[in-house]
Amino acid sequence: MNEAPRIVDSAIALLADLLACPACHGALEHHSDWLRCVPCRRDYPLRDGVALMTGADESDAAPVDGESVLERHLRQERAAADSGRRLRRLRRELHIVTDTLCSQPASDTLLALGCRGGRFSSPMQSATRLLIEADRHEAVVRHAMERAMNPPRVAALACLPERLPFRDRALDGAVCVRLSHRVSPDSRREAMLHELLRVVSRFLLFSFNDAASLPNLSRRLRGRPAYGGTLRYDTVADIADAHGAVIAHRETVSPLGSRQQYVVLEKRP
Asked: Reduced to 3 states, what is the DSSP secondary structure of residue 122?
């Protein structure tokens, strides 16, 4: 008699009851090195502790000018460390993430979408029993796993931000910072916010490039286009309302005006 399929990797096993097919939201069969959707029969590989849930070979795009996704990410981190202004901004953003998580009850499950190689993972891992590091690019997710303070309490997956592989309300909360402005076109950016609010049951910390921010308004007054990847505050509020959530708090990186707006969206009881 054949043994029943099982997940052999403990990190993936932690996700077993949370995942769903990103294409149809159907239930998944769990095998030793892949997941299979029961309704649509799509397969998703498991590779060295990372679930590859993009639905195609999209987790690591081709290098740009000979530079891999991870190399570009590390170069940007070094540039930020060498720039006093960028370093102050990163510290301010880390403060916002930490304060938000401290204001919420402790979580069993927390998603870090667009994990940026674990840049903001330290306060997130302290605030939850299971941190899920997620990014479109497998190499960036693996880099985040290597930096984890407590690897047994961290799971990882590669996924598309507008097609999250989780059941409805499967997670307590999510943190998605410095990602939405890199997602285009507008329809994908809004779909990502819809998906984040679909999968959380309590709260979402979300940052976006505010179309009405002072830097963007200043550019338009000078006859120049706004910075790319914008969302409007009322659009965010409308999407939140559609999922039974409200904007409980908002702030910017700079008190003098920043195009990056941070909002805490909380689900109504």
From this structure: helix
Q: Residue with structure tokens 């690591």?
A: 60
Q: Is 211 helix (H, G, I), strand (E, B) or coil?
A: coil
**In the 8-state DSSP scheme, what is residue 116?**
G
Cβ(49)–Cβ(11) under 8 Å?
A: yes
Those residues of the chain that have pLDDT short of 50 are 1-8, 58-67
Taking phi first (over 0 means left), then psi (-120 to 50 degrees means alpha), and beta for anything else, what does residue 20 get?
beta
The b-or-e profile of 86-122 (16+ CB within 10 A means b, else e) is: eeebbebbeebbbebbeebeebebbbbbbbbbbbbbe
Question: Which residue ranges form the domains of the chain, and what is each CATH number?
Answer: 10-52 (no CATH), 69-267 (3.40.50.150)
CA distance 116 to 129: 20
What digits encode the pLDDT tens for the residues 85-144?
Answer: 667 778 888 999 999 999 999 999 999 998 776 778 889 999 999 999 999 988 888 888
Quote the CA–CA distance of 54 and 133 in Å, as a whole number: 14
The half-sphere exposure of 178 on its side-chain side, counting CA atoms within 13 A, is 15
Are 242 and 235 contacting, i.e. CB atoms less than 8 angstroms apart? no
